[in-house]
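FRA10A associated CGG repeat 1
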Amino acid sequence: MRSLQVHGSGGYDSDFSDDEGGGGSSQQNRKCEDELMQKPFQQGKHTKVAHRNVAADEWDREEARNRRHHLISMNAFDRHKKFVSDYILYYGGKPEDFKRSMATDKSDLDVVRENHRFLWNDEDEEDMTWEKELAKKYYDKLFKEYCIADLSRYKENKFGFRWRVENEVISGKGQFLCGNKRCEKQEGLKSWEVNFAYVERGEKRNALVKLRLCPECSFKLNYHHK
């Protein structure tokens, strides 16, 4: 029987020793093991500490993102108030300095009154602005068969005429009721065709208009043509 030689205290000898075949040091072996264990998409280990400017830039970008999300979540009025308060905080001033003057504000009715025309022609519709378009849209909705008259200054031979609105058409004012705005009589109405001469924006114009008046208001209309 052949006996086996045992080295050491009960251990077995290894033929794959690090010392055989020109084996490297333990540090090189550890490096090889790290390369084998590293995944293809895994980034290498950072051996240097990032500069403080890099951290500062990243912090600024994060703050800018947070500020942008905060502003987007606000409505326009809240955003305006924030900008005004920030301006006062950094540059000084009073909130009253930022209040808008309402002296020149105009309503739709004011715009219509400024641009209204008794009759629109082709020349009036040239170079239309939004104010003129608003007045023209109001004019198109008027009922232009009969007029409503203001005869309060008939002795001075001064009369005012305007077209009827929807409520007056529904109630019959100017057709089945006297067309004088201060008269509500229904009996004895008579139709008149009047040559209305008026001045509009410095320009003299004429228009034939129709009226329905009671006998008393008809007398006022023809006061100077007895």
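thats it. The CA atoms of residues 111 and 193 lie 31 Å apart. The chain has a mean pLDDT of 82. bye
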